[in-house]
Amino acid sequence: MSESLLHGKVAIVTGAGGGIGREIALAMALAGARVLINDIGASLGGEGQSGTPAQQTKLIIEQRGGEAAISTDSVADWASARSIVTAALDHFGRVDIVVNNAGILRDTIFHKMTPEDWTSVINVHLNGTFFVSRAAADVFRKQESGAFVHMTSTSGLIGNFGQANYAAAKLGITALSKSIALDMTRYNVRSNCIAPFAWSRMTSSIPAETPEQKARVERLKQMTPDKNAPLAVFLASDAAKDVTGQVFGARMNELFLFSSPRPIRSVHSAEGWTPETIATRALPALQSSFMPLDRSGEVFSWDPV
User: So which residues are the catalytic ones?
Assistant: First the structure.
């Protein structure tokens, strides 16, 4: 990876203590960026745990000749998220890139999901993405430049079992990113999403009991977190100066561009509609274009290579 692609830039990467976040932080450092590693050292479910994963990421960057600093503030609180951006300014004097990667999982079937299951995931993923982005927006607007890279998921873009909280947050992030792109393009600020495919802490809780589930897990294990890093570095760089408001995917050696919802079929009635005519005329016309009730694993059904 070119060491000059991000030369002189400062990147904030949340959830950079391991997995995809760590690989993105390492790749950005190799591309020349100084990196603020944000990680609270929490477990997959968001609980505190011992150890300093952010220190490990920092050590690797420094061993490779890069420069990094650490923030342990939570993204899920307005004031704390602003402290993350302040830390980058204090350490490096500027901010050019924000990668919103921090996340937790509280997977459970919808009709058993508790309010705490819902709010904890929404707070980290969706609120956290807004809080950190909003804090950086003040800096980006003043300097009239900046790049946001947000992590979404096919669980939200397509669907998955037992992830109503996670899916809602991740699809919400795509709408947030598009709004940021629309509102801040006048300031030369870009905002894009990545739907990453990787075996990491966030996917290690996937059940592997049936032969089909075990086969899926084995496919996932082939998709190492580092496969997502080149796309993140590109989107953060000036090479992507004309790319904004888009949703990409990275799956092993494949790259995807996802569509946004658009009208796909319409019906018209000069007399207007009643519930009865919707049932007898509109439904038969529209039903053949209904989206199937499928899941991410069924859409991406081929083995990655």
Answer: 166
